[in-house]
Design goal:
It contains 22 helices and 19 strands. The strands form four sheets. Strands 12, 13, 14, 15, 16, 17, 18 and 19 form an eight-stranded antiparallel β-sheet that branches. A five-stranded antiparallel β-sheet has the order 5-6-10-8-9. The chain has a four-stranded mixed β-sheet with strand order 1-2-4-3, with helices on one face. Helices cover 35% and strands 17% of the residues. A hairpin with a 4-residue loop joins strand 5 and strand 6 (191-194). It has 564 residues and is of the alpha+beta class. Helix 3 (79-89) runs antiparallel to helix 6, helix 13 packs antiparallel against helix 16 and helix 19 packs antiparallel against helix 20 (497-513). Among the domains are: 79-177, Uridine Diphospho-n-acetylenolpyruvylglucosamine Reductase, domain 2, CATH 3.30.43; 182-306, 2-Layer Sandwich (Uridine Diphospho-n-acetylenolpyruvylglucosamine Reductase, domain 3); 309-422, Alpha-Beta Plaits, CATH 3.30.70.3450.
C-alpha cells in the first residue's frame, strides 16, 4: 500500500547549484542563477497526496537540462547581410553563437521549458543584435525591410506565450542591454519617459528614490508589479498589455501608458502625450499590446504616483464559500469608496492547499474556522492591501471590512497578506524544483465578467481535473467594476511534451468556449494565436491585418505573433 506524503522527514535532493555554463538549464532556469526556492514540506505533502505519488517519485531527477548547447546550428543569413548588420551596431553587439541565439528566442512557457529540458532546439533566430539606441533600430529595421529579414524583439525574456519564437529565423533585437535608460522625468505632469529595455527593479528604484536620483520633491512608484517584475522590462509590460499585482488601484499597463515612440518598416512616429484627446481613434491605444508585430517600441511615457508605503493597510478574510467571497469582491469593486491596490480571492482548492502549505490544516486555527462555518472544501481566502493617502487607505480598509463582514467573511488580521507579500516574486522558482522530478506546474488566465464567473470557473476546472491526479488552484487578482480575472494554476505529473500540449490546448479551448478572454495579462504570442479569429471575430482580425499591412508590408515584424 502506498504511503502518500506521510514521511515528514523525507526531503528530496533539490538542485541548488548554479547551472553549468552554456547549458540548457542556464536558459530555462527562472530568475537569478544563484537563487532557489523549493516547495515547503507542507506543499510537498499536498502534491504527493493529490498526485498519487510517494517519496520514491522524488528520488531520481529527470531531464535536468545539464547538457551543453552545441554550436552547430546553421545560420540562414548571407555573409553580406551579416556584414551589413554588423556595420550598423559594431561587432561587439552581434552574435551568431548557438547559445546566444537560443537564449534570446526562448521564454518561460511550460512548453519552452520542457523542450529545453529535452535538448530540443527549434524556431531560433539567425542573429542576435544589441542595438545601442533608436538610430540603430531605425537602420536595422530599414535594412531588414529591404532584405525581407524577420525581426523579433527581446525585452526581459519572461514571455509565457511563445512570444520570442522565430519560426522564420531572422534577427532578434535585445533591448535590455543598451536601451535601458531614463529619457526624462516630469514631476509636474507625474510622468516618466524611459527606453523600453529598462527592467522593473531599476524602474521602480529610480522612482522610489526620485528625490535623490531625479531631483524630485517627492518619492514615486510606477504601481506596476507583475510576478515577473524582477525579470521583465517596461517595454515588455506595454507591448503585451501586462497587469501588476496592484492593478486594481493603479491600473493595468494599458492604463499607465501616456505616449509611445515606434520604429516601423514604413517609418517612425511618436504618439502625443496629452492626458486625453478627442481627435479620432487613438494610435496610442492601437500600438499597446502589439507585441512587436507592427514595429519596435523605442521609448514610452508612463504615469507615476506618489510613493506612500507607510500608509499601507493589509487585510485578510476567510469566507464560507466561493460565492460569498466573489460577492464581496464584486461589491468592493463596484463600491464608491476607492479600491484596494491589491485584492485576491482564492477558490476552495487554492485555499485548502494554502492551509496545508503553511501547516495550518488540522490545527487550532483550522478547527476554530470550522466552528465558524468555514469548512474545508468550501471556504475561501480573500486578502489585500489598501494604499494611498493615510485617510484614503484607512477608509478603503474600513469599507472593505464592512463589505466582507456583510458577506459572512471572518477577519484574519493582515498576517496572511503580509506572509504572501514577502514571497510574492519568488514562487516561480519552485517550478524548476518540481519540473526536475517530472511534476508539471503551469498557469492559464483569462478575463471574465461577474455574471459569467462561476460558470466559467466550474467549466474550466472540470477540464483541468479531467486529467487524473491534478491540483487545480484558482484565484482572482485584478478587479474591475464589470468583472475580474481568473488565474488557473494546475499541477500534475506529466513529463511527456506531446501529452502536455494536447492537455494545455484543451484548457485554452474551454476558457474561450466558456466566455473567457484568451488572455488577461500574459499577451497572445503564438500560443493563443490559433484562437484569435474565433475569439475576436473575422472583421476585427481584418482590421488588425490592415494595420499590419500598412506598417509592415513585407511581414517582417514578429511573423506569426498575434495570429498575424
Amino acid at each position: 500500500m502506498k504511503n502518500y506524503g506521510q514521511d515528514t522527514d523525507f526531503t528530496p535532493q533539490w538542485i541548488e547549484t548554479v547551472p553549468k555554463q552554456n547549458s540548457f538549464r542556464s536558459i530555462f532556469k527562472w530568475g537569478d542563477n544563484q537563487a532557489f526556492k523549493n516547495p515547503s514540506k507542507g506543499f510537498l505533502k499536498v502534491i504527493k497526496q493529490q498526485l498519487n505519488l510517494t517519496d520514491a517519485d522524488f528520488t531520481i531527477t529527470k531531464n535536468t537540462g545539464d547538457q551543453t548547447i552545441k554550436e552547430t546550428m546553421p545560420v540562414n543569413l548571407s555573409e553580406a547581410n551579416l556584414a551589413n548588420l554588423e556595420k550598423i551596431v559594431g561587432k561587439e553587439n552581434i552574435s551568431i553563437a548557438g547559445y546566444d541565439r537560443l537564449k534570446y528566442t526562448k521564454g518561460k512557457a511550460m512548453e519552452d521549458i520542457m523542450s529545453l529540458r529535452q535538448g530540443q532546439v527549434k524556431d531560433i533566430c539567425d542573429l542576435v543584435i544589441h542595438p545601442r539606441h533608436k538610430q540603430d533600430v531605425k537602420a536595422i529595421i530599414s535594412f531588414c525591410h529591404d532584405q525581407k529579414i524577420a525581426v523579433h524583439v527581446h525585452g526581459g525574456g519572461s514571455s509565457v506565450t511563445f512570444g520570442l519564437d522565430c519560426p522564420k529565423g531572422g534577427v532578434t533585437l535585445v533591448l535590455s542591454t543598451h536601451m535601458n535608460k531614463l529619457i526624462s522625468f516630469n514631476e509636474i505632469n507625474q510622468t516618466i519617459t524611459v527606453e523600453p529595455g529598462m527592467m522593473g527593479p531599476v524602474y521602480e528604484d529610480l522612482l522610489n528614490h526620485a528625490q535623490k536620483k531625479l531631483s524630485a520633491n517627492k518619492s514615486y512608484t510606477g504601481g506596476h508589479f507583475p510576478q515577473s517584475f524582477e525579470f521583465s522590462s517596461v517595454g515588455g509590460w506595454v507591448v503585451t498589455l501586462g497587469s501588476g499585482q496592484a492593478s486594481s488601484l493603479y491600473g493595468d499597463a494599458s492604463d499607465l501608458v501616456i505616449s509611445q515612440e515606434y520604429v516601423t518598416p514604413t517609418g517612425s512616429f511618436k504618439t502625443l502625450d496629452y492626458p486625453a484627446t478627442a481627435t479620432g481613434p487613438k494610435l496610442n491605444d492601437i500600438m499597446k499590446g502589439s507585441e512587436g508585430c507592427f514595429g519596435v517600441l523605442v521609448s514610452v511615457t508612463m504615469k507615476v504616483f506618489e510613493y506612500l508605503p507607510d500608509n499601507d493597510r493589509q487585510f485578510a478574510f476567510m469566507f464560507p464559500s466561493f460565492e460569498s467571497a466573489v460577492a464581496a469582491g464584486r461589491q468592493i469593486s463596484q463600491g464608491r469608496f476607492g479600491m484596494p491596490a491589491i485584492l485576491r480571492i482564492s477558490d476552495p482548492e487554492e485555499t485548502d492547499v494554502a492551509m496545508q502549505m503553511y501547516g495550518l490544516d488540522g490545527g487550532v486555527m483550522d478547527k476554530f474556522l470550522g466552528l465558524k462555518g468555514m469548512k474545508k472544501g468550501r471556504r475561501c481566502l480573500v486578502m489585500g492591501q489598501a494604499e494611498g493617502q493615510r485617510a484614503f487607505a484607512a477608509n478603503v480598509l474600513c469599507q472593505v471590512k464592512k463589505t466582507c463582514r456583510k458577506n459572512k467573511g471572518f477577519f484574519l488580521t493582515g498576517y496572511p497578506m503580509r506572509k504572501w507579500y514577502k514571497g510574492r516574486f519568488s514562487d516561480p522558482y519552485m517550478r524548476d524544483a518540481l519540473n526536475d522530478y517530472g511534476i508539471l506546474i503551469d498557469t492559464l488566465e483569462c478575463s471574465v465578467t461577474w455574471k459569467n464567473l462561476h460558470s466559467l470557473h466550474k467549466t474550466v476546472r472540470k477540464v483541468v481535473k479531467a486529467n487524473p491526479h491534478t491540483i487545480c488552484m484558482t484565484h482572482a487578482s485584478h478587479f474591475y467594476a464589470q468583472g475580474t480575472n481568473l488565474y488557473f494554476i494546475f499541477i500534475t505529473a506529466m513529463p511527456e511534451l506531446a501529452k502536455f500540449k494536447i492537455y494545455q490546448q484543451s484548457i485554452i479551448d474551454s476558457i474561450e468556449a466558456a466566455g473567457g478572454s484568451l488572455s488577461h495579462h500574459h499577451g497572445v504570442g503564438r500560443m493563443m494565436a490559433p484562437w484569435m479569429e474565433r475569439h475576436l471575430g473575422a472583421q476585427n482580425m481584418e482590421v488588425l491585418r490592415a494595420i499590419k499591412t500598412h506598417l509592415d508590408p513585407n511581414g517582417i515584424m514578429n511573423p506569426g505573433g498575434l495570429g498575424l
